Amino acid sequence: MSRDIQPNYPPAYGQVDRSPRISKRFVWISVIVISVLMIGLIGLVIWLAFTFPDRIEAMRDVFIMLFALTSCSAVVVMTMVFVALIRLINMIDYELRPILEKTNETIGMVQGTTTFVSKNVVQPAIKTTSFIAGVRRGFKTLFGDPKRNLPK
Q1: C-alpha–C-alpha distance, residues 74 and 68, integer Å
Q2: How far apart are CA 43 and CA 48, in angstroms?
Q3: Is 49 helix (H, G, I), strand (E, B) or coil?
Q4: Alpha-helix runs per DSSP H in the chain
Q5: CA–CA separation, 136 and 128 (whole Å)
Q6: Would you say residue 43 has pLDDT above 90?
Q7: Interatomic CA distance for residues 64 and 71, integer angstroms
Q8: What is the Cα–Cα distance from 91 to 83, expressed in whole angstroms?
Q9: Which DSSP state fits 92?
Q10: Nearest Cα to 81, choosing from 92, 136, 89?
Q11: pLDDT at residue 19, as a whole number
């Protein structure tokens, strides 16, 4: 009753989970059931064609009309997709491209400002601070620490 329960961790990055998502038995049973249904449907259509030929012709005409209606609706949908694609291309061309150009311009200005500040503010401040620190260290070396030299 006390079985070790192993946690089910997802595979680590770069590793592929090779466990099947659907069992082979389920797949084979599904294929067999669908095949039997298709064969039964074909048999039913053949039996109906010999038994009720006038009704089968009417059903054929209805299916031809449904197929034509489906084709027309597919053309309408494809036209809508084409129009949406054209609008997307126009949006990229006329709205996003100027934004990207302004962004590149701003990045260039920021780089120029950074270079200017680095050369004219930061480097002189570093040189001045290091010179002052060197002079202080030199005085400490020559004269000692002024805090320690005072009499108590």
Answers
A1: 10
A2: 9
A3: helix
A4: 24-51, 53-91, 97-117, 123-143, 146-149
A5: 12
A6: yes
A7: 11
A8: 12
A9: I
A10: 89
A11: 66
Please give the Cα distance from 135 to 146 (Å, whole number). 14
* Residue 14 DSSP class: T
Residue with tokens 């053309």: 75
When the pLDDT of each residue in the chain is averaged and rounded to a whole number, the result is 86
**CA distances (Å), 40 to each of 46, 47, 100, 110, in order?**
10, 10, 61, 74
Single-letter residue type at 101: E
> By the 8 A CB rule, do 113 and 119 touch?
no
Which tokens is 46 given? 């053949």
Backbone angle region of 144, left / alpha / beta, with phi > 0 → left and psi within -120 to 50 → alpha: left
Q: How many residues belong to the chain?
A: 152
**124 backbone dihedrals φ, ψ, rounded to 5°:** -65, -35
**Is the Cβ–Cβ distance between 17 and 10 less than 8 Å?**
yes
Amino acid at position 119, single letter:
K
**What is the per-residue pLDDT for 15?**
65
pTM of the model: 0.42
